[in-house]
Amino acid sequence: MPTQLPADAPPGPPRVSPLYDPRIRGAAYQILLLLAVGLLAWIAIGNAAENLRNARVASGFGFLGNTAGFDVNQTLIPFAAATSTYGTAFLVGLTNTLMVAVIGIVLATVLGFTVGVARLSPNWLISKLATVYIEIFRNIPSVALLIFIVFALPDLQVVIDYEPSVILTLALVCSAFTADYLRTGINTVAGGQAEAALSLGMRPLQVITAVVLPQALRSVVQPMTSLLIALMLSTSLASQVPFPGRELTTLVSKIANDSAAGIPAFAVAAALYVATGLLIGWAGAMLEKKLRILR
């Protein structure tokens, strides 16, 4: 026998029409947005392909298997002009880019941490000099600094080769940001810990290196990851000077001119930059998750 509800039982929640359900309406809006974006992308790609066909410009990626026909002065992987393909040339450009990025981030990290610690020095002069260094190189465009090193310093009888000039530019600019990120990380450490260490007889430098820095470094993993990605992308500065190693941006310009595959060539280079940036970001997120301090 079915159970009878009492006469004074409260009514159930009113049924809402699917048109007024926020979840259904939100999903419908997202689907419509994706369809609109897909339609615009389809139209743009179709127009671009039609224009390329009319201009008799290659639009596929078949050129990657063609022989490059040019040499690269500095390579980390085997490359020969007579036998290597454009696909291999892209890998050469990527490895040269990563080489410059690794050297740059190592120098920037060492220099940045040195300047960051100097900024915390109780010595007034050292602290102010470190602050001036950070403010100068954090606010100067990388291209302007590279032009100054390459073209202005020779007037002062200071001549630096092109490759060290690019690496020096990246190291100086990124070290300023590293020092500033380090300061932000240090501010996350409770001041009472430093005071307790001082009360135990530790010297100020020992407090910084043994108590403050180990905890501060945990807080700067993500900013340093973003800085590494920015430094990797900034290696394209080398395209502004006769860089002997031909990093990716310089090399893709050569490939686009020789193969007459402008858009596909730059699309491959963009995909390599994006993939490398995503890989660095993923590694940084994993490291941050491992070192994170639960508060």
Describe this structure in words.
This protein has 295 residues and is mainly alpha-helical. It folds into two domains: 20-54; 86-291, Orthogonal Bundle (MetI-like fold). It has ten helices and no strands. Helix 2 crosses helix 5, helix 2 (86-119) runs antiparallel to helix 9 and helix 6 (191-199) runs antiparallel to helix 7. The radius of gyration is 28 Å and the shape is flat.
Percent helix: 55-70%
Count of separate DSSP helical elements: 10
Strand-pairing-aware structural class? mainly alpha
Oligomeric category: single chain
**Low-pLDDT segments, ≥5 res:** none
Query: What is the CATH homologous superfamily assignment of the largest domain?
Result: MetI-like
Describe the main β-sheet briefly.
none
What is the total domain count? 2
CATH classification class of the largest domain:
Mainly Alpha
Q: Tell me, briefly, the overall form.
A: flat
Our estimate of the beta-strand percent is under 5%
Write the H/E string, N to C.
HHHHHHHHHH
**CATH architecture call of the largest domain:** Orthogonal Bundle
In total, the number of strands is 0
Mean pLDDT: 81
Q: What's the N-to-C terminus distance? A: 57 Å
What is the CATH topology assignment of the largest domain? MetI-like fold
Alpha carbon gyration radius: 28 Å
